[in-house]
Amino acid sequence: MKSILLSFYSWADERLGLEEMVQFAKHKTVPVHSQAFWYYWGGLSLFFFLIQFATGVLLLLYYRPGPDAYDSVRQITYDTNFGWLVRSVHSWAANLMIVAIFVHMFSVFFMKAYRKPREFGWWSGVALLGMAMVFGFSGYLLPMDDLAYFATKVGMEIFSVVPMIGPKLADLVRGGPDVSEYTVHRFFALHVVVLPAVFLPILGFHLWLVQRHGNAVPPSEEAKSEAQRRSESFFPNFMMKDFAMWLVAFNVLSVLAFMFPWDLGPQADPLKPAPLGIHPEWYFMSQFQVLKIFGDLFPGKLGEILGIVVFTAGLLLWFLIPLYDNTQEAGRRAKRATYFGLFTLMALIVTTIWAYLVL
Amino acid sequence: MMSKATDKNNPPSTGGVSRQTFLRAAVGSAGVIYAAGLAYPVYRYVASPVEKAAKESAVTEVTLKDAQKLAPGSALMFKFGSKPSMLIHHNDGTWTALTAVCTHLGCTVHYQEDKKRIHCACHGGVYDPKTGANVSGPPPMPLKRYEVKVTDAAVIVSRSQDRA
Asked: For the domain bounded by A33-274, which CATH number is listed?
């Protein structure tokens, strides 16, 4: 038996170059230091994405977009064996994935892991976060309950600030002047075909870069000499720890999905008043609040536009940080970048909490 | 049980099960429990429509309201549970109800009044409309017959007792 397996392996190896991969995996190491805990969060983001992929395919077995959307989600939730659980896991893992990506992003930021040669890792990562949020926004509408309906209705208002073509653009995205079954169909196509088709190659690129450049170490480690630094082999040591973290994540996800099954509200009805305290998902709350603040400071269209401009400018700075803070030295630019990161983190947290307080 | 027995026979220092064996078994069983805990809801979720269909086909009786008005020499299609079925009112006033699923490859058959036969368009199978017997063509078995009771409000079709 063993010799058959071995000869099959060498047969495949000759054609696929498996030995190179094995050698690569054997020699791959992961740095060990006091902040190594943060290395797990990229893997956790990936784990939640895989969960999304699997549960998303399961939901596709029964979900029907279009005028039937609400009814099909009702059937999944109440008539299908464990349908409530599959849906609950998909909703919870979506949120946990965004949490994991945020933690991953900020840890990368503060470890200054975006510096040369890892700029493309940073850019592809920020793009993945942006897409994850569009995943969330488009997926939120699909059940077509009242919250989904009104949250999408309000969210689409963002287009109205685009000068000239904004309203037209919004109509095209919605498939009409109002959120309707056409919107569900469009968001569905976006959510299950377009986004995955764009997301997966970028994710592949992002992961390939990690293999190419290895894990970055924070500046405090960089200052140490080679002899002082410690590392462990990726296979099997770090991989096992990675899987242990996945197991923890899986348990947390299971408990949340079981104990707090995701709700399905009443069917969307444009003639009914919007439910009280309606608000977007938590990861849009900060933008929501910034728009509100500027709207209060500068009444009318001006406030809206200023809010969007400030947010866009901040995002652009965030995206371009590798070009500004680009040297290994602990100079003025490095310090400023760290302050910028702290300010961004605080601003996101404060505006998010503020948004929930004034709901 | 086992550890007790080994405790009696061996001094504790040389215990029967090594730490490695114990850990392997524990991690292995935990893995199996996890896999089963994951596979069971996924299996039940995917199999949901299968279970529903099985529940539906478990019916033993279908009441066809107003079917007694069916003109002689014509047939009515209906579902017995999840199975397409056929009620025929013959010209001589008798009734026949049978499954309308061809025993060859499962196409839905149709009643041809002019030729007094049940025909399957897929491969030309022919059945007797009164008994359901396979007369010619590829069908290997007759169509299953139901019992028919005609009242003045409905036709009641039920699984025949002798078969059940």
From this structure: 1.20.810.10
